Amino acid sequence: MIGYCKYLHVSRPRPPNTRIQLPKRVVIAEDEAIIRLDLREMLEEEGYAVVAETGRGDEAVALVQQHAPDLCIFDIKMPGMDGLAAAREVSSERKAAVVILTAFSQRHLIEEARDAGVLSYLVKPFQREELVSAIEVALGRFEEMRQLDATVRELEDQLEVRKAVDRAKGILMDERSLSESDAFNFIQKTAMAERTTMLDVANRVVSGDLRP
After folding, report:
1. N or C: fewer beta carbons within 10 Å in the chain?
2. Is residue 149 very low, low, confident or very high in pLDDT (cuts 50, 70, 90)?
């Protein structure tokens, strides 16, 4: 019996609420092959996953659409489309955080990069520590922007619901002589009973499709 026990493997359960941290996915667009190779090596050594790379700006935008990365690193000067134009397309729809690489640090380029939605930039040549710092800054700012967008959408949704419910309450109060609280309770309980939203119920009241 003892001889068999040593071959048994006891799997330990994963602690509750433990999440596997997936590596951040990166698309690289840099027309100089040597720099592109160095970037890939540094990123992979730092734990990032390079999912695609190209030397053209127009291909970079297509790769972002295809791979949905967390981060894009674009050179500012590329054939097909420059890095700022590519960054503008990616940033306009909050597809990914963007870091721009440039051989220049002129003020007007920095301002153009900011206006294009770039969240961080690096002046070539750069050190590994500078690359990692720029990436973390861009990812942090991007997450803040996404959270802000989500908050704005939530507030807009709440305002839409409130307007619809108020309008529906007014109709029920006028047509059915309900008190405001009774009209609200009807909308709320109907939504719960039908497992739908109060917005849906309110819109049906307004359209005349639903009455007590």
Report:
1. N
2. confident
